[in-house]
Amino acid sequence: MQNVHSKKWIDPEKDDRIKERKEIEFQHEIQLAKNIREANKIAREMGFQADYSGIDIRAANEWNVGLYNAKRDFPEVTKKIKFVGSSQKRNHLIRKAATKYYYESLISNGYPKKEAESASKKLGRKIIGNVNSNEMASSIGLESIKGLPLGLKEAVSQYVGITMNDKYFDNYGRVIENGLRQVKSKWHPEGCFNVKATFDHEFAHQIDEHLEVGKNKTIQKIFEDRTNEKITHDLCRYAWDNDNPKKYSEMIAEGWSEYCNSKKPREMATIIGEEIIKLWKKKNF
Length: 285
Ligand SMILES: [Zn+2]
Hints:
Number of domains: 1
Number of strands: 4
Number of helices: 13
Strand content: 5-15%
Bound molecules: zinc ion
């Protein structure tokens, strides 16, 4: 529990000093950017390619704070993240890299330039299209590109990571308003209304891939023991009502997000959170 103090012995002057010191400590840990250029720079200094164009600066800062904490707590997982920022920018870069790969292979196979140009553009778009309008944020891991031909995989792999839809995260106030509504309707778990909660959800997908959390029997059991209605009640609806082909993925991500963001994580979130930490320690200590 951080920063809990009872009202009865508050000393305003002393508390102000504490607040001031806390802010300074935070500044030392990670500097908050005043604009997108600075936010990109801060992410780059942490070792990521970054393009937060179109994102509200407060959302970009929360994403960077999430990355900073993730790097400290799960360094091996964070190493697999290459790109952060806007999903639109990421998709554009992946498409560009794929198109270039196809163009070069077609040319080396004797295709005329013009044909190679239009064919490679089409193939590039097949690799990744536009960002879905109902997608808030997304995580692309190395796992999801492992079936691609070697050269293409290499080109695309520099852009795997976690990103935000810039049509959604361009307005911080709206993000919070929508977030609170989604928590209230049990679409997302308790406490998971802000940008950090979305970051933790997406980062959980990366943890899941690294530790194969979905293969864990305890994790599977908390899903299988419950009806969909019960999962909605005990965690949230999105934990089962989604089109992710990996069955337990969204439950794991939502559970981790509640574990990290709720003041009082409930049973499902607690089991998921503790199981992830156990798996992490088993692999790393
Ligand atoms: Zn997800």
